[in-house]
Amino acid sequence: MTSPVRAITFASLLALAACQREAPAPAKPALQVSAPTPIEEAPQPKTEAERRIAEDVKQLADDRMEGRETGTRGYDLAAEYVAKRFREIGLVPAGDDGSYFQAVPLLEARVEQAGAELRVTRNGRDIALRFQDQFLPAANFNAPEHRVEAAAVFVGQGVHAPTLGHDDFAGLDLKGKIAVVFGGAPARFDNDRRAFHSSSREKLRALVARGAVGAVFVNTPEDEAGSPWAQRAADWRASSMRLRGSDGKGLWTFPELRGIAYVSAASADLVFADGPRTAAQLFDAARAGTLKGFALPGTLTLAGRTTLKPIESRNVVAALPGGDPALAGESTVFTAHLDHVGIGPAVEGDTIRNGALDNALGVAIMLEAARALKTGPAPKRGTLFIATTAEEKGLLGAEWFATHPVAAAGTMVANINIDMPVLLAPSRDVVPVGVEHSSLKQVLDTAAKEIGVEQSPDPFPEEVVFVRSDQYAFIRTGVPAVYLMGGMVSADGERDPGRALQNFLRRHYHQPSDEATLPIVWSDAARLAALNARIARIVGDAKTRPTWNAGNFFGETFAAGKP
């Protein structure tokens, strides 16, 4: 696959996902529905397994689910459907109070335009950036109104990685200051560490630890190659969410940072105006790995208003109890996110983002894997099946479960995640993401050989998809995980799965056209369900639990089991 294709595929996907999770689905317009435009004529399911998967996708991606956005009536309808399917399969309710539902407390925030401000006061000049065109305030989960004025310090990419000999904060005083920061992490880092240090949570944690009172994230041209500023700016009305603690406050909201804003790459020079270096020089230094921080003259002012509302959503949770009393207190955990992005601006007359591949198909494959496991002897360890909420808002449903597991989970030994399998051209393979980090690699090798499916290397290792979906919530609590993507090797020599993936991401990702009428290869979906079920059975029956490989970054970083 060529470099331009790669840039359009996962770079775009991840950047778009980041925007969706940080900032907002537009205000809900009236429903408008039009016939979707399929890529090609959709194949028909042939086997019973294929028909079951197809029917589940059809139901979950139906317009009546209204795009399944977290906290909406449509999501609740989808959750009820999945609970009904768990019941039909014969799985045990494993949620709250003997139900199939685990309540997930959330705090919803919506940015208001009135009162939004980012002002640079420097060398006698007063520069006010324009809302939406040049900057956007982040939702403030700690106060309905905020205003902070302080001196500013550029901190590079805001990365402190002493084991790699890197410290963007060296020699800088951030106490009481507003940090100006680029995204990402140094290119010389290996993929895993670069992904970890690129996390906004890690950056904000580092800023708070050094006494910062605000933050301005400045986009680079590389950031906007995959996700143009105009795309994010158009969605500024969308809601953001965080988990909500028992005190009613949001979790991981960093109240010490009294204001946070984002600035477009085209407007970066306004933030660095009259400073020691231009934005172009800093962009070049970031590419060259020579970026250094410095104090900026003058002050920055950040202000904004946020509408806050506590809401509640639900994970849908079912269990297949373990067959061996000695191991039944341990569990293998399946996850597939049920939510999507709801209703947005009309595209060719259609406003509903149905999310057939993202992730109705993943949930349907999980249901079929559950059925396969239920029809045979129960694995010795227990197996949990979770349709998670709020993945599109930042992996929130998965994080809540991983940190507040239901009683039936016992000791979680492995996570098998299924997210957006793009199965639009027949393939001979699957792409395993993350298995190289743990003994699950040996499990997958055995399962793939038994099922008769090849394995292909991750075509985009630099994107580290391993930390981009629900499995990361479990990884952060020390649980080894595996995530299987659709294949890349054509099964018929004519239809190219890689091109089909490219086409999906260009035309259908988070769009109304992600419909059940797309040409989903149901035989590949059934095979993926069988493979995931086989992985769970091998893990469930093994004498020992899966383990992280010796010296593995994720295993060592999250060894204490704390996020």
Quick take:
The chain has 563 residues and is an alpha/beta fold. The chain contains 16 helices and 20 strands. It has helices at 3-22, 48-60, 73-89, 191-198, 200-209, 221-226, 229-234, 268-271, 279-288, 356-375, 396-403, 440-451, 471-475, 497-507, 522-541, 553-557; strands at 92-93, 101-122, 125-128, 135-137, 145-154, 160-161, 166-167, 178-182, 214-218, 240-243, 259-263, 294-320, 330-337, 343-347, 350-352, 382-388, 411-417, 429-433, 454-455, 481-486.
Describe this structure in words.
The protein folds into 2 domains: 3-90 and 321-557, Zn peptidases (Aminopeptidase); 109-308, 3-Layer(bba) Sandwich (Glucose Oxidase, domain 1). The chain has helices at 3-22, 48-60, 73-89, 191-198, 200-209, 221-226, 229-234, 268-271, 279-288, 356-375, 396-403, 440-451, 471-475, 497-507, 522-541, 553-557, and strands at residues 92-93, 101-122, 125-128, 135-137, 145-154, 160-161, 166-167, 178-182, 214-218, 240-243, 259-263, 294-320, 330-337, 343-347, 350-352, 382-388, 411-417, 429-433, 454-455, 481-486. Helix content is 31%, strand content 24%. The chain is globular. With 563 residues, the chain is of the alpha/beta class.
Q: Would you spell out the secondary-structure blueprint of this structure?
A:
Layout: H1 3-22, H2 48-60, H3 73-89, E1 92-93, E2 101-122, E3 125-128, E4 135-137, E5 145-154, E6 160-161, E7 166-167, E8 178-182, H4 191-198, H5 200-209, E9 214-218, H6 221-226, H7 229-234, E10 240-243, E11 259-263, H8 268-271, H9 279-288, E12 294-320, E13 330-337, E14 343-347, E15 350-352, H10 356-375, E16 382-388, H11 396-403, E17 411-417, E18 429-433, H12 440-451, E19 454-455, H13 471-475, E20 481-486, H14 497-507, H15 522-541, H16 553-557
Parallel strand pairs: 5-8, 8-9, 9-11, 13-16, 13-17, 17-20, 18-19
Antiparallel strand pairs: 1-12, 2-3, 2-10, 2-12, 4-11, 5-12, 6-7, 12-16, 14-15, 18-20
Helix pairs in contact: 1-14, 2-10, 2-15, 3-10, 10-15, 12-15
